[in-house]
Amino acid sequence: MLISVQTASILGIQGIDKGFRMIAEAGFDGVDFNLDHCLSGKAIHNNECSGFFDQTDEEMRAAIKPYKDAAQKYSVKFVQAHAPFPSWVNNETTNAYVLEAIKKTIMLCDYGLPQSGGSSVHNSGRSKA
Fold it and tell me: Which tens digits make up the pLDDT trace of 87-107?
């Protein structure tokens, strides 16, 4: 069993390397890699979809590489990727964009996020895989 935590706040506040170090030092085996910082729920609700997911697959892999490298450095596994949410709003253009963002999230999983596979059960902000 792996004990994991979502990356949403810690990496944004502490930075990538220090954040993964702190996650490992706190005893977590893995993370739910949060991509909300790339496309927030607020942006989706406001139909303001642009940025990270407009990049090519190669550009996105390059942008994610520092996260992947830091996780490997501290032996933290990616057990889940937290795709943009919500996945549906009352706007066809936004829904099409979010669907493509979800597909690109899956592509990033193939790149190495997550590394362990399996399903997750969420409980009070922590997940067990």
Answer: 999 999 999 999 999 999 988
